[in-house]
Structures are given as structure tokens and as C-alpha cells.
């Protein structure tokens, strides 16, 4: 029975360079180990252990563990042992091949880590949240920029419709006090700011709103505090802006911004707040918004102007819309069959495409692509302010991280890579314990969903009870609203042209009348239509609406004439050309009304450089002087302009 022990010891390979002392050190524990197993044949000793090791049998580990412990105990860490063992292992594989295989395996590991299949991001909204918040911040930037440069001239202390006078009238109506009734009627922080410098307050709100929005846009970092401040600032401007902020785009910005508040963590400023996962309730709030916006617009069209039903609205739209673009000029010249197809496409986008939202992930993504393309096309054919760009924002919620990830780089440490790591940790780690903050956040999100559902009930009732174009239901906070775009199409474009003269007698046939040019609205026949979107000239828009009515319904037009009679330096920033700037102001100003029509491509007027042809209808308001407006201004509590 000792022969196997001698054979096993003789099979142990010892390098020639090894000393006799090292050899003796190696052989001594081997003899002890052999004597411990001398009663059993070699096959009975080795095969069961080897079989158990292959199959991971725990008994194998239990049987080997004492042997290994004894071996380690009897095997002192001498200098001869470790080099011998290392050299024996390396004899099986050449060192160069080992290094090559190690480098290859590490490279494969890195490439595997970097290969994140898009399916891992399906159903996630981390990247979508970043895009949504930056898109909302972009629109806020534009809106506050417009406010900073136009508000004081429109409704500042000496504006066309002073907001201080508006607040005083509200205060007087509710008993002459600033109480909850007056605040709830017109929620604005201007109630709590000094009225001695209303222009300072208006500019301050616009300035800080722009700064916060620009920070979010550039960094992609936002929290509920910043988003709430933006919403409060813009709400404060809308509720004192009167007709200057009576557009659907302003209300839509408030509703969109309100939803954006609940996309963010409370305090954390991080693009990827790990403990505040994007709420699906908020995402579906955006989807409900884009559905109401588009489907409601389609219903209003069918229930509104008959030209939508007989497919002729686009024959007039490009020429008669508020502020056309150069593209509008060429689209207007297209044949009627082209315009008929456009009406059908528009109605399909507004009445059929919104139902893609409930047809699964792929159709929802397809809906987002279609709506974004539709809004971009509309923005090219008309200056609608930031309305088209704002409509794109809720359409972003149609995507998920897998579909929108193409917008983000895939390099290590980039945002998309961080999202992959975050999702990987969530998949491996156990479900975290639900903390008080987690439960509170869930309650807030559920409360948001209940609030939106509750406020949507009157909108649905309004749709069902009245087949006509429904009126917008504007609550003071503008959280949930109805929208209507182009439910009525004007068939003829009329424009108000303001003219001034320095002649003493305005009835003199030889009097020379010079025209004021606005920033964007048609005036000079040879001036091309402007390209403005997403910027917004509010005065130009209101001049279009005023031309559809009388000056008695738009008294601010007379106020504008009075400002221009008093040198007009304060109002001049709202105009493109003031013919009396730097000279003596005019003695008289009048409003003339014209019909404007696009010139024909290749026609006589177009060859002369004209974009427009016009025909005079008659006076919009008679010639007025600054002295003759004293009573008019006094009756409306407007400050009378100083006489030049």
C-alpha cells in the first residue's frame, strides 16, 4: 500500500534550480498527506472528490476543507514554495498568451458594459423628463423675454392699459381692501409688491423668471421650487395683463408649467434624481393635455366656421391670419385642390391622430412624431408666437427613454450611461423600503391625477352639452382649460393704418399724412412678411383683432394715438418706424382702414417688389389731437399725456 505514496511523491516535478532545502520542504507535507490516505486505493480517494468538485457538491468542500487547512498549516510561507507554484502554473500557458487573453477579456468586459440595448430603457422616463423640463424652460425664457421688453409699454404705469388701475378697480369692487376675494379673483404677487414703482415690479418678475428658466434650460437641473416660481411669476403677469395676455398660448404655458412642477424633486438639483422617479401620472397628464388640445381644436373647427366642413378654409387662411410669413405668401398661391387636401390633413391630425395615444407604445411614439412635424410645419406658415412650439412640449411625453435616447450621447459617464447604471442598480438591488417621503410623493402624484380629472369634468360637460364651439373655461389658476384655434376664419384681411400730420388743419386737401409702421403686421406694401416665431409682438396681434371690430370696442387704440401725439418716445419701441421720432410730434393722428391682399406671383405688382396690394375702406377713427383727448382720458382715469 506504500507504493502509491512513493509514486505520487516521485511524480512531483521540482525545477533544477530549486535547492535541496526547498525540495525537502515540499516533500515533507506530501508524505504526511500520503500516510493519511494510505488505507484506500488511489481511485477510491480521488474520483469521488473530483466528481463532487465538478458538480459543486457542498460535501466536497466539507471534505476538502480540513485537508486544505492542514496543508496551509504545514506549508509555511517560505520563499521556495510560492515561486515554484507560480512557475508550474505558468508552464501550461505562455506568458505572452496570458497577457493577450487578459487584455482581450478586459476589453470584452468594457465593451459589454457599454453595450446597452435600447430595450433596457423602454418604459422609462428619465431622459424624457430632462427633455420635457428643458423644453418648458425654453418657452418660459421666450415668454419672460417678451414680457421684459413689452410689458411696461403695454400695461405699465404709463402703458396703454395700466395694470395699477386694473388692480385698483378689482380692489374697489371687493370693498376697497386686499382680501381673499380680490386675491382669488386675480392671483398675482403684485398685490404684495409696492405699487409706487409698478414698472420696477413688472420688470423684476420678468427678469428673475428669465434667469431661472435660462438656468434650467442650460443645466437641465430643476426642482419643484424653481418650477413653482416660474409658474407663479407668469400667472402674476397673466392676471394683470388683461387683453395683452388673453391668448391661448399664455394659458397653455401655465397648464404645461403646472404639470412640469410635479416632474421634479422637491429640493434636489440634479438631472437624474435617483430617489424621485418620473411619475407616470404626470406623463399621462401631458398626454391628456395634448389629446384635449388637438381633439378639441378639431371639434371646434367642425362646429365653427362652415368653411371647415366644405374644405375651403385654407383658401383664405394664409392671407388673413394674424401675422403671415414669406412661406404663407407662396402657400396662398397654391391651387384649391392643394388647399382642400390641407384641410383634410389638418382635420385628420386633430380628430384621428390623437387616438393613437391609447393604441400602445409604438403608435404613441408615432403620434409624437406626427404632431411634432405638424407643429413645425405650422410654425413655418404663420407667426403664432410660441403656440406651436409649446404644443410640441406635451407631445414629448409620447416617447420613452428608449425612443428618445438618440438625442443623448452614449459615451461613458454621459447622461444616458448614468440612466443605464441607475436602471441596472434598480434591477439588481432589492426593493427599497418605502420612506415617509416616498409615500408623501405618491400621495401628491395621486392628488394631482384626481385634481386633473375633477377639473376636466366641466370641460367634458361643456363639450357634450353644446355642439357649438365651446368657450374656454379659465379658472383663475389656469390649471385645466379648453383651447380653440382658428375655429373662425376671416375671409378678408383688414388692417388699421395709423397716420400723423403736422398740418394745423387736418381737413386741408394738401395735408401730408405719414404712416407709422409696426414691427410685424402688414403696412408698407413692399415690406416682406416677417419671420418671428417663437417671439411674440402682442401689440401687432391686438391690432389684427381691433381691425375686426370698432375703436369703441378697443379704446386702447385711441390711447395709443394719444401716446404718439405726445412725442411717443415711450411707445416707439413697439413700432418699427415712427416718422416723427426726433422731430416735433404730429398735431393730428387718424386711423385708416384698408383691405390687404397678397400680390400675385409674377404679376405686375410683384415685379415692382410689392408683397401686398391694398384698397381703402374708410376711416377707422377720425383725426384726433392731444387737446381733444383730455375728456376721453379723464373719463377712463388714464393719465393725460403732456402736451408737447
UniProtKB/TrEMBL annotation:
Keywords carried by this UniProt record: Endoplasmic reticulum, Membrane, Transmembrane, Transmembrane helix
Protein's cellular compartments: Endoplasmic reticulum membrane
Domain Lipase maturation factor 1/2 N-terminal residue range list: 245-404
Any one biological process term the GO annotation gives: protein maturation
Family stated for the protein in its record: Belongs to the lipase maturation factor family.
Name assigned to this protein: Lipase maturation factor
Regions crossing the membrane: 126-148, 189-218, 225-245, 251-269, 281-299, 338-358, 442-460
Listed InterPro entries: LMF, LMF1/2_C, LMF1/2_N
Biased composition (Acidic residues): 8-24
Its job: Involved in the maturation of specific proteins in the endoplasmic reticulum.
Region: Disordered, residue numbers: 1-118
Pfam families per the UniProt record, alphabetical: LMF1, LMF1_C
Start and end residues of each Lipase maturation factor 1/2 C-terminal domain: 479-622
Single GO cellular component term: endoplasmic reticulum membrane
Topological relation to the membrane, as annotated: Multi-pass membrane protein
